[in-house]
Amino acid sequence: MNQRFVVRRVGRRDLDRILEIEAASFGADAYDRNLFAEYTHKCGGLFLVAELGTKVCAYSIAAISPSRLGNRAELVSMAVAPAFRGKGAASALLDSTLRRLRRRGVTRLGLMVKVTNQRARDFYAKYGFRKLRRVAGYYEDGADGLSLAKDLGQKMGQPLLRANS
What we know:
Radius of gyration: 17 Å
Strand content: 25-35%
Helix content: 25-40%
């Protein structure tokens, strides 16, 4: 059964816990404190944590990159502490991220996932992400990555056009 997670913007006080989650999730490929601090400033309200009670149990980072094809975003990273996996933390984060991106007029969210990470691939498929391509040797350990994307549709809150009378 999914528990009720509170999703909020990351704060500096969260970095130690995020580093613990990162190390447990990615081992030698874990991001360092400086990179997380940079993302705290760079990604603003799209660097999120999920809490259960007062315990941060997961995080996600998305970044917007405007392009000629419309505003696009990338899910830079998402990780859930091992004790909280399968309990709804990742869903709470992705749901909140998708709402925030739509409010900002983002039309597509992309991400990269290891070919061997079937659990993550199944999770993203449940949300309607589709495979764009396989990227050979994408990860530092030489593993291939899969580029996935989800179309987010029209901008939320976009005003309707009115004809002049």
